[in-house]
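Hey, I'm writing a tutorial for new members on how sequence and structure tokens pair up, and I'd like a real worked example in the thread rather than a made-up one. If someone can provide the structure for the chain below, I'll link this post from the tutorial.
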Amino acid sequence: MGKIQVMPKVMADQIAAGEVVARPASCVKELVENSLDAGATRIEVSLAEGGIACVTVTDDGEGMSPEDALLAFHRHATSKVREPRDLARIRTLGFRGEALAAIASVARVRLITRARGEESGVLVRVEGGEMHPPEPIGAPFGTTLEVRDLFFNTPARLKYLRSPQTEQARSLEVVQRESLAHPEVAFVCKTERQVLFQTPGRGDAREVWAALYGVGEARMLLEIEGAAGDCALRGYVGRPTQARSSRQHGYLFINGRPVRNPAIQQAVERAYGERLMVGRYPVYALYLEMDPALIDPNVHPQKWEVRLSEERDVCVLVESAVRAALDSVMLTAVPRVRTSPRLGSPVPLPLPEEPERLRSAPQDSPLAARRDESSYRPARKLLPLGQGAGPDVAPKEAWASALAVRESAGAPEGSAEIEPKADGADGVHETPQERPADWQLRPIGQALRMYILAEDGNDLYIIDQHAAHERVLYEDLLDAWQRGDVQPMPLLAPLELSLAPSAFEEVMARRDELLALGFEIDPFGAHTAVVRTIPDSWQGLDYAALLRDALDDVASMGPKATARDIMHRLATRACKAAIKAHDTLTLPEMEALCRRLTRARDPYHCPHGRPVFVRMSERDLAKSFRRIV
């Protein structure tokens, strides 16, 4: 007898389930996608014990006939593709016809469905791959699919599931992602005790974003759109201050399918550039509509990834659209004075009693003059509790508790609540503030030897002098390199730098690119490089220290780095020579810096992503001094 045998059907189904069903969230994803393909307008997901005990998905889609309900549990049975050529133009979320069979092989499944036009529904039960005879049942139009006791017949896999709380969080993430992909569908995700998440299904992605992250975050999103060839792009991107510490808050949807694509993700991050600090990542929701013939979704077991035939063009479109949206608005931080105390209500503090001899003195007497002078003392009768109500509170701490930094362009003056509007209006849209075309800053003076105070006729600006000079130096260096105006400046004594073996090889491989930027570098020994020229724009800088770090950066960039990437990295290093905090500036120096800053392409952020200035409008100042309420 030969060694090779055909596996039993139950064993084959359980092995196939290992690719499709990894955890309860996998069941939620497959069932929700089936509901969306069925044209559902409302989908309800119920979880028991995080989905380990039970996952129930109910929809109001087209339902199934009794015959289709039985066939749905057979492997490779599907209504979504008919011929091999259909695989080249897939428009549905599912197409393999293996999800229900895989789930039913490792769980106890109940399917209740009723198609439009049918007098009654049908109940189909499958346990561990064994199907029971169908039964008629009264049911509304649509489908309810219940998955109980996941992995009951595969204890080894059940053992590797996480806690119910973790599995519930994973399933909730799937529902949230699908709701953002399809804002026209109303979603509800709940447990036995509470509703975890729900959306109205009015077709506005901002409403879904508000349900995910809050109304205040949804207000600040910037809308983008663009088109190139057979690809149309729309969506929303967050402002730099909305950036998160991980990449999981960036969403990409291609033809309604949530996917991950590292190339498009990198295109978005390139568009933000220096606006983001190191270790911070943008939030966004991008919707790409493409010809299905240009997409291959059949490259990942769980369909999380797709292959694009014109990926480079799509990345260019995404990067340009995101950069245009960020360049079009004032991305500045604005101090906001709270209109009510955070820690309590105002507490009256008694003032010293006015002496009797001052109160009774004649109006033209010296004592009356002293009484008038005393009236100019700062009133301390109503200081909010916790905001410097006592003499021991340092001024810096008092200001820090009184001011809250927020971002401009329509952010709410008080809380982030939104009044509901009639006729389905969500009320979360805003008009971004455009950058003035003739923007000019007039410096007033220097504060704390760190900040420049300036105004433009409408607003007051508090400028970080170091960050502003970094931005100016950075753009000047890049502009000079891009125009080809860089002249190599020979060093009187060539600089020798010892590099690690791997770094030395990388630097030597890029000698031509570095020479075009003004750096003439030759090998000198085993792992030593000798620098003979530097760009003339580096004159006066501590080029010895800068070069060592810059060459280490170039070596770490890898072979895929372009000349533009090298320019950015070298310019970022060179901007370290900017003026520092506590450097005293003269008025002409402040005027020159402000004049150059207003002409910068991005005057709002330093090359490392920190804000360059804080802006206070005339209204903000008036509210601070209680001139208006």
